[in-house]
Amino acid sequence: MVRVNSHLSERIRENSPGFSKGQRRIAQYIEEHSDQVAFMTASKLGQTVGVSESTVVRFATEIGYSGYPALQQAMQEMIRSKLTSVQRLERTAGNYTEEQLLDAVLEQDIDILRRTKDNIDHAAFYQAVDVLTRARKVYIYGAGSSLALATFLAHYLRLVFDSVQLIDATSEAGIFQQLVWGGEGDAIIAISFPRYSKKAAKTLQFAQAKKISTFAVTDSELSPLAKYAQHLLLARSDMVSFVDSFVGPLTVLNALIVTVAIRRKELVARTLGEIEHVWDEYEVYEKVDEQKE
After folding, report:
1. pLDDT tens-digit map of 240-275
2. Residue 199 belongs to what H/E stretch?
3. Euclidean distance between the first and the last CA atom of the chain, given in angstroms as a whole number
4. In terms of CB atoms within 10 Å, which of 58, 213, 218, 273 comes out highest?
């Protein structure tokens, strides 16, 4: 069982004097079974505790949320960092039939993109672009499944900067060793989502001590990376069973790459032109002629 976080508990406690009998039952069930409620519809929760769906919706607004989806989202984000991979898999199996999975995953990713767009801090994004554009060397670190995002970012930033290092060490000692020559004027981008990596946070802490500009790509200001990040880029992510959905952060990274490239347009254009020439000269890619009708 995963207990609700203190913030949600405080909302429930502060509003409890005005609860109806049905709302008290909802509150008790949430306190004791938040990991289940996080994936229940309002109708299902109502059936479970013996109240109407409208009572569940009124409960959510009573404790300060815009509606039941907002309450459910808060619980989902809170428990993501606490559920094991096995628990995630079991939760998905219990919530969807196999025939529902394709649409469920697509709809979830669409929702993640929408929430990322609605909540991203534009001023923070462009401030990060300003600093990154002037960086002498860029280090990139991705922990766990976020390594895929880090590899993608490093691949394209190498077309923008002449010195980009993807940190590939697995031990803290190895990570710090790769950063030992870094310093003022350099930048590091660390990426981590629940369950958060301790190594990612320690990497930013070490980089900060060396006066490297620190960037974190994560999902919340409560992320352990945020404490050591001078520039925080927040993107929504979610769990699709035991698999992390990264459509949100991938889109933010796409925007970061494109914006920085436009800021360094002349250099990037020259680099791309030289690369295209090399690809043609050494026939790196297979040329496909258009078929004539």
Report:
1. 566 788 999 999 999 999 999 999 999 999 999 999
2. helix 198-209
3. 64
4. 218
Stated length of the chain: 293
Q: What is the pLDDT of residues 81-116, one digit of tens each?
A: 666 778 777 777 776 788 988 988 888 888 889 889
Beta bridge partners of 191: 142, 217
DSSP, collapsed to helix, strand or coil, labels residue 1 as coil
**Going along 113-163, which residue ranges are E strands?**
138-142
Here the tokens at position 270 are 């020259």
Percent of the chain that is helix, strand, coil (3-state, to 5):
60, 10, 30
Find all residues with CB under 8 Å of 283, minimum gap 6, and list them.
Answer: none
253/109 Cα distance (integer angstroms): 16
Rounded to 10 degrees, what is the CA torsion of 249, 85, 140, 227? Answer: 80
H-helix or E-strand spanning residue 233: strand 231-234
Instruction: With beta carbons less than 8 A apart as the criterion, state whether 69 and 40 touch.
Output: no
Q: Contact, 93 vs 221, CB < 8 A? A: no
Q: Is 58 left (phi over 0), alpha (psi -120 to 50) or beta?
A: alpha
Taking each helix axis from N to C terminus, what angle separates 265-281 and 247-263, rounded to the nearest 10 degrees?
A: 100
**Do the beta carbons of residue 94 and residue 68 sit within 8 Å?**
no
Question: Structural domains in the chain?
Answer: 6-116 (1.10.10.10), 121-280 (3.40.50.10490)
